[in-house]
């Protein structure tokens, strides 16, 4: 398997939930002097969406080159058209990814931003309010949505920038003001980073349908294969392929403590699919917990307090085999320890799934789980085929 390419001397700051992430994102955009690249799956018409849209428009009003991509399906036809019209009036360059499935079934599920080629953001957070349900913004959540992002200062930002530029070009032409932008970047004086943490090794791992079909899955498999002590994983949508399931069970079988924290309660079909995997994983020694305090949306993992990842990729067929995704992988003890502590806090708010309790579930419900699994598996196979044909 191809190794993940790490770069040194990156300042990576963990941002928990929108209360930490959105202020940092808005502040970076408000400080922009040359250019902003921005991608998100959902750009909601709510308080948070208005706040970030206003920051992007203020940047454009200052003469900053602002390029924004949203996913058409995630953001919705009506909202994406509103953004297109609003941004056109205020000088923000705007594109919608794959409207009406013209490019197949793939969705742009990445959540990325780079400002002035100096600070980058990689996250699982959409641009929507922490307290509003993903599917129905009128529904108020019992607690802020549980999610994570990172800000990055250092050499890795260049790789994120290049990835986002390639995405922008793939969806249309570059603006004719490229030369002016490059001249302004040359004249731009980068302020020294105001940080208090030590630099870390970090890498960007993306999934697309060209060169990086299995990159994120391979990064997980490599980390799980090298685990010796502890594995902590948290994800809202659990429906991994066979290789991931085997890797989790194999780690537990060789004595590694494997903790799997899963979000439940958002989609009944998704919950049923996830629970179809429980018996074998529990039997192999994997500890499974269901997070029910609020919506769990974070896609994070820590291995041996040495390796950690934060990003947009779920453990399901859509993220691992179909959609465009982006995660950052960090090799740093301090960062991994901080993230592991956050996951442990989520575990404390969760309900453990015990093997003996799961065995008592009525046989009708267990059959329902298997039916959901077969329906899901065949649906993913069809979507994958349609996406590649």
Automatic annotation (TrEMBL):
Residues 104-131, 292-319 form the PLD phosphodiesterase domain. It comes from the Bacteria. Its main location: membrane. The keyword Thylakoid does not apply. GO terms for biological process: cardiolipin biosynthetic process. Its EC number is 2.7.8.-. SMART domains: PLDc (SM00155). GO terms for molecular function: cardiolipin synthase activity. The active site is at residues 109, 111, 116, 297, 299, 304. It is found in: Cell membrane. It is an enzyme of class 2 (transferase). Gene3D superfamilies: Endonuclease Chain A (3.30.870.10). Keywords: Cell membrane, Lipid biosynthesis, Lipid metabolism, Membrane, Phospholipid biosynthesis, Phospholipid metabolism, Transferase. The keyword Lipid metabolism applies. It catalyses: 2 a 1,2-diacyl-sn-glycero-3-phospho-(1'-sn-glycerol) = a cardiolipin + glycerol. It is a peripheral membrane protein. PANTHER family: CARDIOLIPIN SYNTHASE, PHOSPHOLIPASE D. Catalyzes the phosphatidyl group transfer from one phosphatidylglycerol molecule to another to form cardiolipin (CL) (diphosphatidylglycerol) and glycerol. Belongs to the phospholipase D family. Cardiolipin synthase subfamily. ClsB sub-subfamily. This is Cardiolipin synthase B. The gene is clsB.
